[in-house]
């Protein structure tokens, strides 16, 4: 069931998954459902159909993020923090072009406002995280 939350998701331990892997994979595929895999002292992970990620890996997703950043930067409202938090959460899913444009837009806006930008620390942090993501991708040969 696409859109389910981790609170109401079926769970299985890593140990049980080892014993029933084929059954669990079939269930996830046939029921379009996710399963949370838990383990002692390890982070839980979610097994779900790959197409659940499709909305995040197309050009329109990047355009929406770019538009949100351009709208929010310089606003004196709650939007800068909402947009920055959202962008940070989804940074690994953004394409290289979106990250490049984000770095450029924040840099140009900071220069234009000459250090007087509202919530500048939020934007500087977002730019730094975007630059870190770019550096990581370049070093792993994933920057396009």
Could you describe the 3D structure shown?
With 144 residues, this protein is mainly alpha-helical. The chain has two domains: 6-49, YefM-like domain (YefM-like fold); 57-139. The chain is 57% helix and 10% strand. It contains five helices and three strands. It has helices spanning 14-31, 59-72, 79-90, 96-113, 120-139, and strands at 10-13, 35-39, 42-47. A three-stranded mixed beta sheet has the order 1-2-3, with helices on one face. Strand 1, helix 1 (14-31) and strand 2 form a beta-alpha-beta unit. Helix 2 (59-72) packs antiparallel against helix 3 (79-90) and helix 4 (96-113) runs antiparallel to helix 5 (120-139). The longest helix has 20 residues, at 120-139. It is elongated, with a radius of gyration of 19 Å. The chain starts with 9 loop residues before the first strand and ends in a 5-residue tail after the last helix. The relative contact order is 0.10.
